[in-house]
Design goal:
Layout: E1 12-16, E2 37-38, E3 41-42, H1 43-53, E4 58-63, H2 68-73, H3 78-86, H4 90-98, E5 106-110, H5 117-122, H6 125-128, E6 133-136, E7 140-144, H7 148-159, E8 162-168, E9 178-181, E10 190-191, E11 194-197, E12 208-216, H8 220-224, H9 237-244, E13 250-254, E14 257-261, H10 265-277, H11 283-293
Helix pairs in contact: 3-4, 10-11
The chain binds 1-O-phosphono-alpha-D-glucopyranose.
């Protein structure tokens, strides 16, 4: 891409939501893990709102068996709306309407087998077509003044290419994440020289982890469609990403906020505290509770 060219806008986002949620059993025995609630809304809604704030217009869920509740959540619940309206509950009505997709905005496709995150993203290939797109992992909530994806889109509009969000992790934890290699970690926009999925601490090229927010060019699908397996015997998104390096711009940025790994029970509790403290209705109550328990 020449320097003067404006990058093509990011209007579509992929939400891989087919995962089993084993870390939350038995809560997730029948309920999708993405429906676990942080404060007053399910994880998936937090992440959809982040994408909406970034200007995303089409929302692609990669679902699987027993995930129907996710589409129900965003559907028009007209009986509920009529009842709230008749009772004059306008604030609640607005909350319900905010959790509803207008016609044509939610697109669902299934990943029949849990073959890995790379395979899940590949399932969206035909829906994405030849456009740049975002991927958001609903296990991770990004909380800050601005939506994480919005900050990334602002950067992408200057850099084009591929862009991921990263954050520092303790070296002992590199084996839980995708880890980047980059020459100068002080840069605001860090060119990515390499990517490794879940390296052992002694083999990790850095301690900057991939946090689950991505902007990609559609050429990623060429590499995903090789269906090569990597770490854990799964088709890894990170491996296909690594193949784009050197062929297209590939940068990493830090988010001006904090991430919450809601795929872990401790992260989930922490997120509930953080979002609860910020809630205008219950924030003071949460603060008082915390004092009582510490
Ligand atoms: C996935 C990605 C990994 C990334 C992580 C962020 O791993 O494969 O690169 O760092 O999400 O949460 P998972 O947590 O699905 O094992």
């Amino acid at each position: 891409m020449s320097k003067a060219a404006t990058p093509r806008p990011v209007k579509k986002a992929v939400f891989p939501v087919a995962g089993l949620g084993t870390r939350f059993l038995p809560a997730t025995k029948a309920m999708p893990k993405e429906m676990l609630t942080i404060c007053d809304r399910p994880l998936i809604q937090h992440v959809v709102e982040e994408a909406r704030e970034a200007g995303i217009e089409e929302f692609i869920f990669i679902t699987g068996r027993h995930k129907e509740l996710l589409e129900e959540h965003f559907d028009l619940q007209h009986e509920l709306e009529d009842t709230l309206e008749a009772r004059g509950k306008s604030a609640l009505l607005k909350k319900v309407q905010d959790a509803t997709f207008p016609a044509g905005k939610l697109i669902l496709t299934r990943q029949p087998k849990p073959l890995g995150l790379g395979h899940a993203v590949w399932c969206a290939a035909r829906i994405i077509g030849n456009e740049p797109f975002a991927v958001l992992l609903p296990d991770v909530l990004m909380k800050g003044q601005h939506s994480c994806l919005k900050e990334m889109v602002d950067t992408y509009n200057k850099t084009g290419g591929n862009l991921i969000a990263v954050e520092e992790v303790p070296r002992a934890e590199t084996k839980n994440y995708g880890i980047i290699d980059t020459k100068d970690q002080t840069l605001e926009i860090m060119p990515v020289d390499g990517l490794v999925e879940k390296p052992e601490p002694e083999k990790a090229p850095s301690t900057l982890s991939v946090v689950g927010r991505y902007i990609f060019q559609p050429e990623l699908f060429e590499y995903l469609s090789a269906f090569e397996t990597g770490a854990g015997g799964e088709i890894q998104l990170t491996d296909a990403m690594a193949k784009l390096i050197g062929k297209q711009p590939f940068n990493a940025v830090r988010y001006n906020g904090k991430s919450y790994d809601c795929g872990s029970r401790l992260g989930f509790v922490e997120a509930n505290i953080a979002y609860g403290l910020d809630d205008p209705e219950i924030g003071d109550g949460v603060r008082a509770l915390l004092k009582r328990y510490t």
